[in-house]
What we know:
The first copy, chain A, is α/β, with parallel strands linked by helices. Chain A has helices at residues 7-14, 18-26, 33-46, 52-59, 75-90, 104-116, 133-137, 164-177, 191-207, 227-238, 248-260, 291-307, and strands spanning 64-69, 94-99, 121-124, 142-145, 158-162, 183-187, 217-219, 242-245, 267-271, 285-288, 315-318, 321-323.
Amino acid sequence: MSKQVTIKQIAQYAGVSEATVSRVLNQPELVSKQTIQKVKDGMDELQYRPSALAQSMRNHTTKTIGVVISNVLNPFFTTLVRGIEDAATKRGYSVIVCNTDENPDKEQRYINMLVDHQADGIILASTGNHANYHSMVNDMPLVFIDRMPQGKDANLYDTVLVDNEKGSFNAVDALIKQGATRVNAIVSPVATTGTERLNGFRKALTAHDFPIREQDIALDDYLGQHTAELALNLIQTNQCDALFCGNNVILMNVLKVLKEWQIGDMKLAVFDDQPWFDFVQYPIISVDQPAYLIGTKAFITLMDRLANPDRPVTHDIVRTKLVIR
Amino acid sequence: MSKQVTIKQIAQYAGVSEATVSRVLNQPELVSKQTIQKVKDGMDELQYRPSALAQSMRNHTTKTIGVVISNVLNPFFTTLVRGIEDAATKRGYSVIVCNTDENPDKEQRYINMLVDHQADGIILASTGNHANYHSMVNDMPLVFIDRMPQGKDANLYDTVLVDNEKGSFNAVDALIKQGATRVNAIVSPVATTGTERLNGFRKALTAHDFPIREQDIALDDYLGQHTAELALNLIQTNQCDALFCGNNVILMNVLKVLKEWQIGDMKLAVFDDQPWFDFVQYPIISVDQPAYLIGTKAFITLMDRLANPDRPVTHDIVRTKLVIR
DNA sequence: CTTGTATATGAAATCGATTTCATAAAGGCG
DNA sequence: CGCCTTTATGAAATCGATTTCATATACAAG
Lengths: 325, 325
């Protein structure tokens, strides 16, 4: 690196103290017009840019937040992250994105890293296996998204979630109204979302006086390794005519199976909507989550918390929209 | 925030100087066994974590890199970013992702921000409108990905690119071999990729003794606003039976038009492959770019440059793979 | 002409680490 | 026992900003 231009050099150039240069940037009303001009000339001339590092050091704020999710490759999270980044940029914040792959150890390490970097806050889709967030983050503000926080001090934190149960209920309900006679489900057991979506599934069956058979439900580990066999098993042994998929990754894997086995007749529903669902030969019913909105809301919640650390905890639940094709 | 635990408190706890505590972390071989033990006890007891900020300040390295792309929502870039993040994490680096939306001003602002934060380097898919990168980044290492850097000192930088021309050639060639008689193209004029892909398109036509008609080519601004009309225009006025799309976003918009106008017969090829192409009713020919690999390569290139600032510039070109459906 | 009040500026402390330089204690050797 | 080399440690400077406190000047009021 070529040597950085510091406040010292500007001070020298303008023949004033470093304090005065700093004031030109932060409290110009305390500085005389001529001095301001001299200092600004120096800044232009030497192309001065204040070191964000040094400022953070002094001010105890980094204007940086962390976003901890399972995987940016999942388009739901991608959109969410984009929502956060846009909101953050507008307010002068930078975003560090961390992929946990649903691995609690990775999550732990990333959180530590963010604490070390003194992020101003963290937006977190937690794998949910941590007993005590507070001791991990040492009073750093946390906003939980997508998944309900678990553990003893979970209720201390702001959340932005969706109504998984209702969304799933509507999707399964729509499947049945379209004539499905036996609906099976594949959901992820990770975090709280899987359970809640399964609840919606069960309630929809019950509402239509369908029996709930445990063998009609498969739990997938979200990483997509075994989805194919699970799906195939449901389809072949249960002879189901409709499948409810707990997320878009699962649906993708189900589609692979259907294609490979040339199963043309299957009603499909899935939690989370993607644009390309429009182009698939099956008329996919989907629960559209406002991922981008969740991102912006989470960021705003975080900012509010930062501005007012003692205000009461908020729990935001955003609406889903049923998409019928 | 509750007050942070600093090196000072550890020093106090262990009854040694701050220098010694620092040495326990960085050069333990200079410290006696007993002292190490005392200091480590203190660290455990007080849950000490060194401030990354203070370290960066002293060491002039932040262990942070910037990634500047047009949009994470584009799955090509998502995958690329994931490749970078995985490689970075392994080496203890954090990643700040910046979305330019192909807006040179935004790109400029983000680069400034990264310079202010003293990122150790930047991986950049540039919109290409900057004359002088060097003066912008002040000797910070830069690795260009996806797009060729433009401007006078463009040749000073490492690049990791794909062979756009060859990939496009193969795709269009395959379309024609599948029986296409009039192939049209929609590409993005942004950056160098559009031009190169168009060159491949032209060469493939020529190779098959097809005439090159300028009205068969549409330039789309990548933001997808006008793709629909452009596509419709090509299809209706030119009566083409095959379309080459310059990227996955364009293809998505073309599919929308085809669906809306119920055009069932159209051969399609696209630069960049996505998993869901398998499930679309049209047998999409695609050019599979190793996005994840580009990401890891770019990061490694950046690390190499950091380790050895004076080594000669490298230009890496990764292979694409034709996917025929 | 003295006293008091703005106005403008600088010296020095601070944020939390690392590193250089100096020094004290301990051990080796003649 | 005295001299020299290791070994272990601390004091202080440094990284690049901000902020407090003190001070110097200018000007108004008495």
